[in-house]
Sequence to fold (205 residues):
Amino acid sequence: MTGIQSNTSLHRSLPQRIFQTLSIRYLLALSGIALTILASNWFVKQKLQEQLYDSHLLNIAGKQSMLVQRLVKSTLLLTQADSAQQNYYRSELEKTLAQWVKAHEYLTEDPLTPHQFTQNSDTIRTLFCAITPSYQVIVLRSRAILNLFLQPEPIAENTFKAHLSEILRHEVPYLQGMETIVNQYEKEVQQRVDQLIYMQQFLMY
Fold:
């Protein structure tokens, strides 16, 4: 009699054990799915932040050529202006130079700072190194011209002509270099977008 009761209790407990095992597996599967969803959401969020930063970076890099052209124009107008207009063009040159330098420093910041989501590649760093000599000459000569036009006495043409000549000589190499940099930025941004699309498709399946 005891043996029959033992067998009955074994038969009753077997489905219960199977149910418990399946429940645990089901919960583990659900937990795995939930973790995958959370991880994919975090990944997508990070990549979207990177894309927003990339767009911001491209916008700044694209404006550098425009700024240096405005800087050269302001320099030319300042050196040709009469005394009544010099204050205006000096102010314009000073403002454009400060904006251009600030943007250049932002683009070449390294290593990563809290407001950055991506870092310049080795290729882009090399391209920036290539335009650094032209950038430095334009900055140095522009500041020299600004200092000259701060003086109260009249300025002879030969005192700023050499500075102006050097700015004009380095404008084209800088513009060409920045065009290459912007193209490289666009290429790398597209590569990151392609990677994001691939990862999204991978996570979906």
